[in-house]
Amino acid sequence: MTTQTPGQLINEMAPGKFLKLAKITPAGSLEARKLSTGAVNLYWRVTVAGKNLRELVGIYDSSAPPKSQTRTPKGFSIVAATRAAEAMAQKHVAHLPDGGIIGVKKAEQAAMVAKQKAADLEAHQTLDRLLTDYCDHLETLGRSAHKDARSIFALHVVAPWPDVASMPARNVTLEHVADMMRLVREKGKDRTANKLRSYVRSAYATALKARSSASIPVRFKAYMVSHNPAADTQPDESANRADKNPLSAEELRTYWQIIRNLPGIKGAVLRLHLLTGGQRIAQLVRLKCSDIQPDSIVLTDGKGRPGKPARPHAVPLVPAARLALEALNPAGEWAISTDGGITHLAPTTLSNWAVAAVGDQIEAFNTKRIRSGVETLLASVRVSSETRGRLQSHGIMGVQARHYDGHDYMAEKLEAVETLYRLLTNTSASVVPLRKMA
Length: 438
Description:
The protein is an alpha+beta fold.
């Protein structure tokens, strides 16, 4: 009696039936099942808890070399299927305490689900998303820089580098950030390149700090960043040099003469800006009626240390400044407004009014020169750097100043704006140094 080969048995088997081909060590057997199409599937069969379980090995390839032990492009020879079934059987026996092949399949499925979840999460934790979350965080803290950061990210990250912007934030490298900065510099925007670096660095620093700081929103932990790709990039120090070109004492007096009798809201707001020490225009126009006191105003300083909320900044008023504020007729929410306090004046509007009022009476005039001019003028009469910094809210430096110095400096700031007013209204050409202020 001639024994038929597995291939012959498969050729003769009826569709829909299972045929045992060989015993598999250490457990189970190799079976075949012919489909109605004529194709044949090969299975590893094992009994688990009294129930038959079949695991698909693959399609039978009748054209494969009989002794081939690896899968062909079309499927498996009987020998190759046997080797594959043996691997399944060994895995089954090795994991019997965990349910055998069933436990293995559950573990593999769980691993696949976890991997997919991680991939889905990573797909959402992109550089673009991190930068957006960082800007939202700044806005929540009341930091005015969020607008500048959004604009720089949109123009110099998302638009020119869509592939980098859409990659997981944790995979962004130093070279990626350096390339972004290089492209901005090639456009002649060295200062913007430095600002881009600074904002990207702060965004990553926030995500890194989220691990240890409860003050950082938990969403930043999801980025799983382990490095700051902007930290080791090199800024262009020359682009960070101040280019204020402050108004001279004589130019400041000229500016005062131009605006001191300028009628309407234009004159009032320009006088208030100058007589309060050249406050940041973006902060001044956001003065709320609720923050007006009889002898002072309280502005909200949104600049300063990254990750810190905006802080109140009190500014004393000399009589002429109080008159200017009263001329604005503060009402509603916003004190400096053209619609009854519903919306505040735009910073660019104030700047444009100042430029229009000056015309060609002061060469190369712009409103940035007012703020630096005031500080320079006060410095020339020995008003201390501490007082000047407090008046113009340059920031509170040092551990002692931030944590232990509870003095409000209102007396010193008042003396400074009184000095400023005297110097502005002094028609002499020279500035006489005053005593040094504490």
